[in-house]
Design brief:
2 strands; two-stranded parallel sheet; alpha+beta
């Protein structure tokens, strides 16, 4: 099982900083919002 995260709550961080943060938490996948409630 992979742990994923939707990083909306870390929007105040620079992208690279956010990636470092979620990686340090053991997150293996991100779900990136693209607008209109669609995620990739």
């Amino acid at each position: 099982m992979k742990l994923s995260y939707i990083p909306d709550s870390l929007g105040y961080m620079y992208f690279e900083e956010m990636l470092d943060m979620v990686q340090s938490l053991g997150v293996q996948a991100l779900e990136i919002p693209t607008g209109q409630r669609q995620h990739i």
